[in-house]
Amino acid sequence: MRKIGMTSDNHFDINQVAVPRVIKQQAAYLRQHHYTDYLIAGDLFNDFTRSVAYVNQLAQQLQGQCRVYFIAGNHDMIRGTNFNQLQSSVNAHYVHQKMIAFPGTDYVLIGNNGWYDYQFANLSGKSAADFAQWKRAFWVDGAIVQPVSDIERMALVLKATKMQLQQAANQGKKVIYMTHFVPQAAYISHTGRRPRWAEMANALMGSPRLGQLLTQYHVQAVLFGHTHLKYPPRQIQGVTYFCAPVGYGTKRHCEWRWGTNFFNEWQACLQTYCIK
């Protein structure tokens, strides 16, 4: 049996975490509770080089006991990387556009950073150019340099995902899919005190087309983050979705629900999925 731990949106730098200490705490917890695999769905740091270094250090401490895999969230993409590197192999722990087997099972992990195509926004009369302009002016992703439009980047996500899902289907494999951005409309809110601002933000949450693809290929489980809202596991059209991001625990913006410190909140948000 494989016991898989799943997390997202740890935001170590924003949460001002003492990373060496937390690595030891996380490694000890994962060992103590006999996890065989640990999946991280993005947003570790606002710097990809720091995210890679953290994963390497954690994996070293867990070597031979628990495998560690991660993808990049939008925050990881802000500094320390570029579009071409993010599309490359990087290292054995980075699983964007990769398929990883779970030994002793007929399951595979498919990872993709994901992106967005504005289709979650409920704003009539707005063009792709309007959403892109708002992003550059007001959203953290405005600092991310890319050689393609958001629509084109999402098309790359869908193309790579479909190819790998078809490959898994041809091999008779069951799929656990990990991405950062939202794949289902059920996780998008259209209420709030600033509805137009909220809808512009919704445009940058993800894409319903990814959820349609995951349903079409009968994916078993999906891990994602990005929302900073915590949900219990839920099944949508036969697919089980996991989304319980750690989020921010700052005085200005506290999203923690269960913990008084980072490690307690991480532990409470850690999702578990067991396969045979």
Task: List the keywords.
globular; 10 strands; four-stranded mixed sheet; hydrolase activity; 276 residues; Calcineurin-like_PHP; Calcineurin-like phosphoesterase domain-containing protein; Purple Acid Phosphatase, chain A, domain 2
What would you note in describing this structure?
- The protein has one domain: Metallo-dependent phosphatases (Purple Acid Phosphatase, chain A, domain 2, 4-Layer Sandwich), CATH 3.60.21.10.
- 32% of the residues lie in helices and 16% in strands.
- The chain has helices at residues 19-32, 48-61, 83-86, 128-138, 150-170, 195-202, 208-216, 262-269, and strands at 2-7, 37-40, 67-70, 98-101, 107-111, 174-178, 221-223, 234-236, 239-242, 271-275.
- The protein has a six-stranded mixed beta sheet with strand order 4-5-6-7-9-8, covered by helices on one side.
- Helix 1 (19-32) crosses helix 2 and helix 5 (150-170) runs parallel beside helix 7.
- It is globular, with a radius of gyration of 18 Å.
